[in-house]
Design goal:
Blueprint (H helix, E strand, L loop, with lengths): L3 H10 L1 H13 L20 H10 L7 E5 L5 H10 L2 E6 L2 H13 L6 E5 L12 E4 L3 H12 L6 E5 L10 E6 L10 E8 L6 E5 L10 E7 L2 E8 L2 E4 L1 E6 L2 E6 L5 E8 L2 E10 L2 E11 L1 H6 L7
Parallel strand pairs: 1-2, 1-4, 2-3, 4-5
Antiparallel strand pairs: 5-7, 6-7, 8-9, 8-16, 9-10, 10-11, 12-13, 13-14, 14-15, 15-16
Helix pairs in contact: 3-4
The structure holds S-adenosylmethionine.
S-adenosylmethionine binds next to helix 4 and strand 2.
């Protein structure tokens, strides 16, 4: 044992040695436990079993670019690259965690595919993301939601423990995590969303035969759920069997839902096939819809806010 006074004197004499020792300690693997994180939420790593499940839920592959907002020690992006072949980006405000993550990427030989940068996650450019991962507080998820909804249709978003409020997940799962204390003790709650195309508004058929009236389509969208109506001259039919997944859209309408449309949304254009009839008596015709101009400029993002 060193008496307190003796310890103080020892420290005064050896400040340089002590500073070097502290640096060595911080550089040791595992010392991240001492990390608090920086910014709007403390650092708490997603348990590795949950990381892997999140990436499986998002169906991550070598074609994906994974962005983890508030990347901590980088485990989600590092695992996406090492185990699933993806590329990716992690952002965090904690200088040490970013440094540690970039070093881990070099050590693992994947620094050409992943990168970690020190920046505010609310300012990150998400346009390259095909998969986005979040382990943040509910208010942070909520604040990010409008930006997430502007991502390419089909982008997968996976969140650990906290959801996106009224935007219901496309899939959710609970996995047991013995020893987990924060959030939901003993378990991780995982949610997956697939960013839907934006269809809210009025559309008009643009491939009608010359001289024949065009059909009108009105979609009322709330995230990946919608209802709507089809109008032709004085007739209005309610859409049923509606489905929107990423850019793929389908619905039925008319007596006995005998008209069935299946198509793809590409910005201001929806193109697909309308099948009419049933059994052996089915006719098929191409159908192209164009967003009416005034809708385009008034409320492009309103169904999502
Ligand atoms: C709960 S940890 C999640 C770490 C990692 N994503 C994981 O799941 O293992 C949240 C991280 O967000 C970081 N953070 C908090 N606010 C931030 C902000 N405004 N911008 C960037 N990073 C932030 C913290 O430093 C912390 O490392």
């Amino acid at each position: 044992m060193v008496p307190t006074n003796g310890l103080r004197a020892f420290c005064r004499r050896n400040t340089g040695v002590i500073a070097r020792l502290m640096l060595i300690l911080l550089a040791l693997p595992g010392v991240a436990f001492a990390q608090k994180g920086a910014g709007d939420v403390v650092y708490e790593p997603t348990p590795q079993a949950a990381v892997e499940e999140m990436l499986r839920m998002a169906n991550v592959s070598k074609d994906d670019f994974v962005i983890d907002l508030g990347s901590g020690d980088g485990r989600i992006v590092l695992t996406a690259a090492k185990e699933f072949g993806a590329r990716g980006l992690g952002v965090d405000l904690d200088h040490y965690l970013i440094q540690q993550s970039n070093e881990a990427a070099k050590r693992e030989g994947i620094a050409d595919r992943v990168k970690f940068v020190e920046e505010d996650l609310f300012k990150t450019d998400l346009s390259k993301a095909t998969v986005l991962t979040l382990y943040l507080l509910p208010w942070m998820n909520q604040k990010l939601r409008p930006k997430i909804l502007e991502l390419k249709p089909g982008t997968r978003v996976v969140a650990h423990d906290y959801d996106l409020n009224e935007w219901k997940p496309d899939e959710k799962k609970k996995i047991p995590v013995p020893g987990k204390k924060l959030g939901y003790p003993g378990q991780s709650r995982l949610c997956l969303w697939i960013v839907p195309a934006s269809i809210d508004g009025e559309w008009i058929q643009s491939n009608n035969q010359p001289g024949t009236p065009a059909w009108d389509f009105e979609f009322k969208q709330r995230f990946q759920v919608f209802d709507g109506a089809v109008k032709l001259s004085e007739h209005t039919f309610r859409m049923v069997e509606t489905n929107l997944q990423a850019a793929r859209l389908s619905f039925a309408f008319g007596k006995d839902a005998s008209n069935h449309f299946d198509g793809t949304v590409e910005g201001d254009r929806i193109s697909g096939t309308l099948k009419t009839g049933s059994g052996n008596d089915v006719t098929t015709a191409p159908l192209i819809l164009t967003l009416k101009k005034e809708e385009q400029s008034v409320t492009p993002a309103s169904p999502h806010s």
